[in-house]
Structures are given as C-alpha cells and as structure tokens.
Design goal:
Blueprint (H helix, E strand, L loop, with lengths): L9 H4 L4 E2 L1 H7 L2 H13 L5 H17 L4 E5 L11 E3 L1 E3 L5 E3 L3 H5 E2 L19 E5 L5 E4 L2 E10 L8 H21 L8 E15 H4 L3 H6 L24 H16 L4 E6 L5 E6 L2 E2 H21 L2 E4 L13 E9 L12 H20 L1 H7 L21 E2 L2 H13 L1 E3 L6 E3 L21 E3 L4 E3 L9 H24 L3 H16 L11 H10 L7 H6 L4 H9 L5 H54 L7 H32 L5 H29 L10 H5 L3
Parallel strand pairs: 2-9, 16-19
Antiparallel strand pairs: 1-8, 2-3, 4-5, 6-7, 7-9, 8-9, 10-12, 10-13, 10-14, 10-15, 11-12, 15-20, 17-18, 19-20
This protein binds adenosine-5'-diphosphate and magnesium ion (MG).
Adenosine-5'-diphosphate binds next to strand 10, strand 12 and strand 15.
C-alpha cells in the first residue's frame, strides 16, 4: 500500500477526527482520565462530574476542529445509522450565544423516536426513546458534527437498536470465557474480547447510468437486465489493475476512513466486473461494528464525489457474483492472547482445543440462529442460490485439525506429528498442532483460517451487529456449559479429554472440508440432518423458536418481548422490501419496457407496409419475423404484468397474519416477478439498442 498520501503521512491523518484515548490523555486532567479508563476497561459506572469534564474537553476539541454541531449517533433497527444534529449554541441574556455542551448532553439524548421501528415495543403515545453514550467506542467528527456513539432504548428500557444486544453479548462471552481460562490456570486475564475484521465487497457504477435505472434507485438491485456477452468467466477482473477512476475513489476513501480511525488496509478488484473489496484491520467487535457502518456511509458519499455510485446490495446484477462481507471473528484476552490461536505448548493446545470445540458445538446446535443472523431479502439471492456460500451452515477446519479431532474421538488422543508415537490427550501431553494450515476453503460458510473463523454468509449491506451478537451468545453458552463441568470435575485433565471427545463425536456432522457448492454436499448435508434454510422468512422464524428465545434470554441479550419485536420487524422489512420491488418492477414494465416494445412494433409495421407499398419483390421476412416475435413477447409481457398485479393486490390486501403474508410475498409475488423479468430480458436483446430505455448490464458493468 502507498504509505504516503498527497502531503500528509498516514500517521498524521490516522484518527485525526477521533476523540481517542491519546486525545483524552492529552486533554483531560490526569485524575479524570484515570477514572474514565476505569469506566472504559473495567465497566465502572460513569459519574456526572466525570461526564461534565469529558464533555467540555470533547466540545473544545471538536470546535477547534471546526465542528458546530453534535449528535448522538445510533443504530436503530432500520439497519442504518441515525443522527439528529444539535448546534453547540446556547442563548445568553444579552441576545448573543455561547457554545455549550454539558455532561448531561453527552451521556443522554432524547430523540423523538416514533418513526423508528420498535416491533410494537414502544406504544406510539410513548414516542420518546433515549440514547445513552457508549464510551467504549470513541466519539468522532463527521461533516462538522461531533458524533457520539450511543445505544438507543425505549423509555421503559427495551433495546431499540443493534448496539445494545451486541454489547450485552460481549459481556456474556467474556464472563464465560474467563471462567474457562481460570480453570486453565490463567490468573492475569480479566476480560475476553471478541474481535472482528469484516471484509467488504461492493460494486461501483457510473452515476449517470445509475440515474437512468429506476430499479437501482428504488431497490438497490436491477429488476430487469439481460446477461451481457461477457461476464466474469475470464476472471480477468480479480486482483486486476485498478482503473484510474476507481483508484482515485479508493484513495480518497482510505484517507477519509483513516481520519475517522478506521484502519482500512486492503483494497482490490473482486471477481465480478466493477466489483471491489475493502478490508480493515480487525478491532473489538463493538468498534468494528461502528466502523463498518461508517465505512458503508463513506463508500456511498465518496463514490458520489467521483461521479460514481457504490452499490451495496447483495445482488445488484443477476448472473453476476453478488457481494458479501466476510466476518473474521476471534476472541482474545485483555492480556493479549488470541484464544483461537493454536499455542506452542501442549497446555496451550489443550486450551485451544476447548475453545475450538466450544465454537464447533455452538455452530452445530445453533446453525439456524446463525443463518438467521445473516438473513435479509437481499441476501436470499446469494445464499442457497448456487452461489457462495450455500444456505447450509458447515465448518471448514482443514485436514490436519480434522484429523486431530478424529483421533481424539477414536482414541482419546492424537499421534505426535513430530516425535511420532501415540500420546494421550491431556493438558500436559498434547501434540503440536498445525500452526497455519495453508489450505483455504473458499466455499465454506464458516471457515477456520489459522487463528480465527471467517463467517462468510453475511450480506454486503448488512450491519455486522447481529451476526456477531449471535456468535458471541452461542459460544458463551457452550463455554458456560464447559465451565460448569470443569468446575465440578474431580480430575481436570480427564474431564477435558472427555469433553473434547464428546463434542467431536456429537458434532462432527457440522464439519465439512469439501466443496460447499456441489450438489453432492446438499444431499450429504440432508443425510447429516443439517438445516438448509433457503429464505429469509423461514430463517427469521427460528429466532422465535423456544430453544433460541431461551438462549438469548438466559444470557441477558434480549428479553422474550425484545426478541419477538425483532422478529416482527424483520418480517415487516421482508414484506416491505418485496412490495417495493414489485411496484418498481411494474412501473418499469408498464411505463418503460412495454411502451418501447409497442413503439418498436409500430415502427416495424410501418417498415413492412412501406416495403409492400413499393410493389417490388423484396424479401421482407426478417422484418415480418421480428414484428411477429416482438408482438408475441409484448403480449406475453402484458399478460405477466397483469399476473404480477393480481398477485400483488391479493398479497398486499391479505391482512392479519404477517407471517402468512410474508410467505405469500415470497411464493406468489416473487415468482410473478421472476416470470415477468424473463420476457423483459428477451425483449431487451431483440429491440433496437437505440430505443432501449435504460442502460444495459454491459454498459453498466464495463463502463467505469
Ligand atoms: P483473506 O485471506 O481472507 O483475504 P486476511 O488474512 O487478510 O484475509 O484477513 C482478513 C481479515 O481478518 C482482516 O480484516 C484481518 O484484520 C482479520 N483478522 C485477522 N486476525 C483476526 C483476529 N484475531 N480476529 C478477527 N479478525 C482478524
Ligand atoms: Mg477472507
């Protein structure tokens, strides 16, 4: 990577718009800084004197940086971030203003929240929600506004956002992991932190073309569009040289993200034409989630400055690879140990295997929940649609690790790869584990990659809050169960062995090292009893199964009512999304494609007539055939427009059971949309290019 930007160095730019720890240390009185650190790292309560001093320092810093406003920045259940800007000004008696920002304003905000989804949690008469400062994620300046990361709750205390359950899940996993670590004799770690490095895929297309596509504007994906003559088959885009315009965009994006303290590191072209990827260096889950939201926002904003539009939808183009994000996840101690890193000693290796097996058991027992955490209508086009990764969750471990687990299951121990011979598994006698298995499986939805797991199902437009919240919670549950057993065990080593053996035996069905895209795997997974949950509607239903509600309640992540509310919101979101897509499709079909087809047949009829009128023996079979073909397609297209209208009417008027309605959208409306698209795409490839009312795939994908 180019370390030097235009004039300033990365180290000067990085974090320059963030009120980070270095800034706090510089600007806060020593004692205050010390107490704030206590709050940050030990969860000590935040008192009002402390907040007052921090607020003033924050305000002074922000004003020096040119900020005029502040906002509580939060992540409501819409999936995007929300902000309401307030100026720093306060009127004085003499008609002037002073710049003010109190501790109270830092700690708590009261946005009118009646228009945010609450899934029925907040009755409309209680419109206010409140936001509370999350001091574990640093404040930053964006658009001359001091942004304070906050959690968002209803007045009665229910979580109305994505951050609150995520923070709770981080506490849950830390609590259980520390119990296990203590049993392994660790006396120094006080906290276990989950870390995430989310890779992000996206498309860049020309803004002028985007503006001519109603489907992209209203839905983020193309609802019509024939395959271009060239797609991604030559794989000549992957890691290819960056085009100038793209490179300029990426450079500016990097710089803007660095200013915000987002450690954007890797950038390259992806497999599909016009598709790219950005990966940051991993950080604490909470901060990684905030940074992810900022990254998505910046991508859109900066693309616009370059005459481009950044498409974050999971499947903007049919027949072309979609976009996801790879959620690289691990857990580490506050004294610097990565718990998913095989160690150097047998003792460390035994501990590693316990944490690894906790993840294996968690993913097997809660595959449905993990799948649900990645479920969005957009992602339905990727998962289970013959494209990476499938809707079936399985774990890739790599051959060596799988072999070790197999031996543990069969013999209770494993061969020592270096010294040969057979070793009984025990804390003191575990063989060396392979360090970084070089084989990578790019088709696995949940792959072990040496010292972390890569959850590859998450969609490109999604927040990573939910998947990580679920991951943390399910692993917390398993670590808790393991800790329960080990705490009661007579002989620690024997019990460790027993646990590893049991988990391997009972949960090996989730491990699969082969090609996840193959049909054989789908069959095999069925035999193994692994769930294959194809659509969002089915996936989110698992949120409210008794087993899952209980788990989430048990670890204080969400109450029963809160979970129920989230399910309702997800269901409604599904319905609204498909409804908007269907309406957009009808608009394009009726007002753009059908008129074009009619126009074209009219022209062709004129040509046929004028040829006839010449009285010459001209061969007009081409014109005749084209006229017949387009007319027939137009008739079929018109019929299918009516069919979609009927399906949509019936579905949108079916009040009552939201779940049933969502199923109707999935089965009837969606199907009618697919059928309508087929005729539309056929028309596109025979009608005169000059007449076609919108840019084609070829034009959009190969233009930038
Ligand atoms: P790939 O080979 O999948 O392209 P890399 O090895 O470059 O990926 O890493 C991908 C991501 O994984 C990066 O964002 C990186 O910061 C992140 N990562 C590395 N170590 C960890 C960890 N311990 N916890 C979470 N994420 C991590
Ligand atoms: Mg990756």
């Amino acid at each position: 990577m180019n370390i030097e930007t235009k004039k300033v160095s990365i180290s000067e730019v990085f974090g320059s718009n963030v009120f980070n720890e270095a800034m706090m240390k510089e600007r806060l009185p020593k004692e205050i800084y010390k107490s704030l650190r206590k709050t940050l790292y030990e969860g000590a309560p935040l008192n009002s004197t402390l907040a007052e001093v921090v607020a003033t320092a924050m305000k002074d810093w922000a004003i020096e940086k040119g900020a005029t406003h502040f906002t509580h920045w939060f992540q409501p259940l819409t999936g995007i971030t929300a902000e309401k800007h307030d100026a720093f000004i306060s009127p004085t008696a003499d008609g002037k203003v002073i710049l003010e920002f109190s501790g109270k304003e830092l700690i708590k905000g009261e946005p009118d929240a009646s228009s945010f989804p609450s899934g029925g949690l907040r009755a409309t008469f209680e419109a206010r929600g409140y936001t509370a400062w999350d001091c574990t994620s640093p404040a930053f300046i964006k658009d001359d506004t001091l942004c304070i990361p906050t959690a968002f709750c209803s007045y009665t205390g229910e979580a109305l956002d994505k951050k609150t359950p995520l923070l709770r899940s981080m506490e849950a996993i830390s609590r259980q992991a520390i119990r296990v670590l203590k049993l392994f004799g660790n006396t120094t770690a006080t906290k276990v932190i989950t870390t995430v490095g989310p890779e992000q895929e996206y498309f860049l297309i020309d803004k002028g073309m985007y503006n001519k596509r109603k489907d992209l504007i209203f839905t983020g994906r193309t609802l019509f569009g024939a395959r271009p003559p060239k797609g991604q088959e030559l794989e000549d885009h992957y890691f290819g040289t960056l085009k100038e315009r793209v490179s300029a965009f990426m450079k500016e994006l990097d710089e803007e993200l660095w200013k915000l303290g987002v450690s954007a590191k890797t950038k390259h072209n992806e497999v599909a034409p016009s598709q790219h990827e950005l990966a940051p260096i991993f950080s604490t889950t909470n901060i990684a989630t905030d940074h992810k939201q900022l990254t998505l926002e910046m991508m859109k904003k900066i693309a616009s400055r370059h005459g481009l539009v950044c498409l974050l939808h999971e499947k903007p183009f049919a027949g072309v690879n979609g976009s996801g994000k790879h959620n690289n996840w691990s857990m580490g101690t506050d004294d610097g140990q990565n718990l998913l890193d095989p160690g150097h000693t047998p003792h460390e290796n035994a501990q590693f295997l316990v944490f690894l097996c906790a993840v294996i058991k968690a993913v097997d027992e809660y595959a449905d929940l993990l799948r649900a955490s990645a479920a969005t209508p957009g992602n339905d086009h990727r998962l289970g649609a013959n494209e990476a990764p499938p809707a079936i969750i399985s774990i890739f471990l790599g051959e060596q690790l799988e072999d070790i687990l197999e031996q543990i299951e069969n013999n209770g121990g494993a061969k020592n790869s270096k010294q040969g011979g057979f070793l009984k598994i025990g804390v003191s006698t575990l063989p060396d584990l392979p360090k970084d298995s070089t084989d990578r499986n790019r088709t696995s939805p949940f792959a072990f990659t040496g010292n972390k797991f890569e959850f590859r199902m998450v969609g490109s437009s999604a927040s990573i809050a939910e998947p990580n919240c679920i991951l943390n919670t399910i692993v917390a549950e398993e670590l808790g169960q393991i800790a329960d057993r080990l705490e009661d065990a007579k002989d620690f080593e024997t019990e460790v062995q027993k646990i590893l053996k049991e988990i391997t035996k009972n949960h090996k069905r989730i491990i699969f090292n082969g090609n996840n895209y193959s049909n054989e795997w789908e069959l095999e997974a069925g035999k193994r009893g692994l769930p294959n949950i194809r659509s969002t509607v089915e996936a989110i239903t698992t949120y409210i199964s008794e087993k899952n509600i209980r788990l989430i309640e048990k670890h204080n992540i969400l109450s029963r009512a809160e979970t129920r509310a989230r399910y309702e919101i997800a269901l409604e979101n599904y319905i609204k999304t498909i409804n908007i897509e269907a309406l957009t499709m009808l608009e394009i079909a009726k007002r753009q494609i059908l008129p074009t087809a009619i126009n074209y047949t009219g022209r062709m009829a004129d040509v046929v007539n004028s040829l006839k009128a010449t009285g010459l023996p001209v061969d007009s079979s081409a014109q005749n055939e084209l006229l017949m073909e387009v007319s027939a397609l137009a008739a079929s297209f018109k019929k299918n427009i009516s069919a979609l209208e009927t399906a949509l009417d019936k579905t949108s008027n079916s009040h009552g059971d939201t779940f049933k309605q969502a199923c109707m959208y999935r089965d009837e409306v969606f199907l009618a949309m697919e059928i309508l698209r087929q005729d539309g795409d056929k028309l596109e490839v025979i009608i005169d290019a000059e007449l076609w009312p919108m840019p084609t795939y070829g034009e959009m994908l190969f233009n930038v």
